[in-house]
Design brief:
The chain has two domains: 37 residues, no CATH class; 62 residues, no CATH class. The longest helix is centred in the C-terminal third of the chain and has 12 residues. Helix 3 packs across helix 4. The protein is α/β, with parallel strands linked by helices and 102 residues long. 37% of the residues lie in helices and 16% in strands. It contains four helices and four strands.
Length: 102
């Protein structure tokens, strides 16, 4: 059995692409099980009192439209600030977000 914990089953497009990628093992006789094991996080009563720059706001608002995501940006772009904004906006600490950069 092959279990994929990171496949977001709540997003139809992503689920469809994941199933297409798993078609090869399935046709080879491998049993595939998709299981969403993301955690909902802990509710938080926090406020973001800073101000995002224009580029940060565009990135943050784009990420807010999705339940998972990866923000790849250069050093000093403000990835951690955006993460703090997202946490305050969503009111939880356990979203499936990742930030990467130099």
């Amino acid at each position: 059995m092959l279990a994929l914990a990171s496949v977001p089953t709540s997003r139809p497009g992503c689920r469809r692409r994941s199933l297409q990628a798993l078609a090869v093992p399935h046709h080879a006789g491998v049993q595939v099980t998709l299981r969403d094991e993301r955690q909902g996080g802990t509710s938080l009563d926090v406020r973001f009192e800073g101000e995002l720059q224009a580029d940060q706001r565009r990135a943050a608002e784009a990420m807010l439209k999705h339940d998972t995501g990866v923000l790849a940006a250069t050093t000093a772009f403000g990835k951690t600030v955006i993460a703090a904004w997202l946490i305050a906006r969503r009111g939880v600490n356990g979203s499936c977000w990742s930030t990467v950069g130099n």
